[in-house]
Design goal:
Shape of chain B: globular
CATH architecture of chain B: Alpha-Beta Barrel
Radius of gyration of chain B: 19 Å
Shape of chain A: globular
Largest sheet of chain B: 5 strands, mixed, barrel
Number of helices of chain A: 8
Order of helices and strands of chain A: EHHHEEHEEEEHEHEHHEEEE
Strand order of the largest sheet of chain B: 2-3-6-7-9
Number of domains of chain A: 2
Structural class of chain A: alpha/beta
Number of domains of chain B: 1
Low-confidence stretches of chain A: none
Largest sheet of chain A: 5 strands, mixed
Structural class of chain B: alpha/beta
Largest interface: A-B, 55 and 51 residues
Strand order of the largest sheet of chain A: 6-2-7-12-13
Order of helices and strands of chain B: EHEHEEEHEHEHEEH
Low-confidence stretches of chain B: none
Oligomer: heterodimer
Strand content of chain A: 15-25%
Mean pLDDT of chain A: 95
CATH superfamily of chain B: Fe-S hydro-lyase, tartrate dehydratase beta-type, catalytic domain
């Protein structure tokens, strides 16, 4: 048995659709938790309306947000996986199939940065990155449709031998610059170290981590906790009309590097789009959020 | 204590001036949709040339809402809609507010101080419509009344809609000049030294 073109095509299409119509269960729980903890009445009402909206979208199989974003996939390839057919093409074809079949139809968000022309297709679309997983017999695909509201406010800066003081100050500056433009309560992803490109990727991966999974190293886990308190102390609140809930989580990943230390910060808006599937050699598909 | 209002358009200046930040509003009646810079550029261009807009905007509710509009047999159907970021239109809005005496602007992310000043002078509020409520907003659409500027791509057109129970929008800038956004950005900035101090203290405690 093998992971086939047809299977990858249908799975990538399905992942995208699911991420547009349903918010993750852990995100619903985080929002419910926030309602109970919020001191601001407007904020409580706003979050309750968000939860109603998510339920309505799921019930009617409609979009939670009209900005369906651009297709972004993170693929991890097990070294024992057997592939049949053009798997990279299958991901692109899966998005094409979604565009043809999804109801309601998608807006044209794929934009040529040089001409600003918009469509469903474009150079290097979908954006797909690949990694290897030693010993695994599956293909693991995470779908993260990225929309304008939260995509716009990510930032990266490179420091020279920064202290944690400098790193955390920068993270807070990015948070303040974004203000409430990214549809809070958000998930904040942070990548520290490595290189320019790798820090950004770590930030994205951190952002996509399910809630409740702290970083395994205590020093990083503690950083995540204090940064969450710090972000929520800013007071922007849900949709920026004030409150204690500006972020649902702050997730940090790091890597060693040279003395030049990139710090990347990115955001996922409150609907926290992320869907994931594992396709095994046997043809079995496991979906998760 | 904030109140919830179910309001019928056209909104009277009096009713608008009574709204306060934090109030929630559901809209009924006709509203105008304008999403995108080209739409705002063209509205301004018409004003400069003294040309009447194809949709009467006097005293209107203008929504920064984008969405999926479908055209079949020359009829336009709005399948779904959602607010877009209003701050992109900051430079255009004061003039539009003053010229047309707009009564409400809806969108997400707010507008700047210059806009808030124009709103206070004219008697206009800004309604914050949370992003990600696409399903609920779309259910409020009753009828597409007019569509103008057919040369634009579908979601940049100027569209007049009839809606029922569109909301909730939170009054985030009122006609007294109160803005939830200004206050919050300033407060977050003023809190930053304390927040950074707390972070340093918590790091120290771990050592």
């Amino acid at each position: 048995m093998a992971v086939t073109y047809d299977l990858v095509k249908s799975v990538t299409s399905r992942l995208y659709e699911a991420s547009l119509k349903k918010i993750p269960e852990d995100t619903k729980q985080a929002l419910q938790f926030a309602v109970a903890r919020e001191n601001n009445a407007t904020a409580r009402k706003t979050i309750q309306i968000m939860l109603e909206s998510a339920a309505a979208a799921e019930r009617h199989q409609h979009f939670v947000c009209s900005d369906s974003g651009i297709p972004v996939y993170f693929v991890q390839i097990g070294t024992r996986v057997l592939m049949e057919g053009d798997i990279k093409r299958a991901i692109a074809d899966g998005f094409d199939e979604l565009v043809r079949t999804i109801q309601p139809p998608l807006l044209q968000h794929v934009t040529n940065p040089l001409t600003l022309e918009r469509g469903y297709k474009g150079k290097d679309m979908p954006i797909v990155t690949f990694d290897l997983v030693d010993g695994a017999d599956y293909l693991d695909i995470t779908c993260s449709p990225k929309a304008l509201g939260s995509g716009r406010w990510a930032a990266l800066e490179i420091f020279s031998f920064p202290t944690l003081d400098v790193i955390e100050k920068y993270i807070m500056e990015v948070v303040l610059r974004a203000g409430s433009q990214h549809c809070p309560p958000v998930v904040v992803g942070v990548g520290i170290g490595g290189t320019f490109d790798y820090a950004a990727k770590m930030a994205k991966e951190a952002m996509l981590r399910p809630f409740g999974k702290r970083h395994p190293e205590p020093i990083v886990a503690a950083m995540e906790e204090r940064l969450l308190r710090a972000v929520n102390a800013t007071g922007f609140g849900p949709m920026g009309t004030g409150g204690d809930t500006t972020a649902m989580a702050v997730h940090v990943n790091y890597a060693s590097g040279h003395g030049f230390t990139p710090v990347a910060v990115c955001f996922n808006c409150w609907i926290n789009r992320r869907t994931r599937a594992r396709i095994f050699n046997s043809g079995k598909v496991e979906y998760s959020e | 204590m904030s109140a919830t209002h179910h309001m019928q358009t056209p909104l009277s200046e009096d009713a608008v001036r009574r709204l306060a930040v934090g109030d929630m509003v559901y809209l009924n009646g006709e509203v105008v949709l304008a999403a995108g810079l080209p739409t705002h550029e063209r509205m301004t261009e018409y004003l400069e040339r003294g040309m009447p807009l194809p949709i009467d905007m006097q005293g209107a509710v203008l929504l920064h809402f984008g969405g999926y509009n479908r055209e079949a047999d020359g009829e336009l159907d709005v399948l779904y809609m959602n607010p877009t970021t209003s701050t992109r239109f900051n430079t255009y809005m004061p003039r539009l507010i003053r010229t047309f005496g707009l009564r409400a602007i809806g969108g997400k992310g707010g507008l700047d101080e210059e806009c808030a000043r124009a709103m206070r002078e004219s008697g206009c509020v800004y309604l914050s419509f949370p992003g990600g409520l696409c399903t609920l907003y779309s259910q409020a659409i009753r009828e597409v009344v007019t569509v103008a500027w057919q040369d634009f791509i579908l979601h940049y057109r100027l569209v007049k809609l009839r809606v029922a129970g569109l909301g909730p929008g939170t009054v985030a800038i009122d006609a007294q000049g109160n803005s939830l956004y200004d206050g919050l950005q300033a407060r977050a900035s003023s809190r930053l030294p304390q927040i950074l101090g707390d972070l340093a203290e918590e790091r120290g405690r771990r050592r």
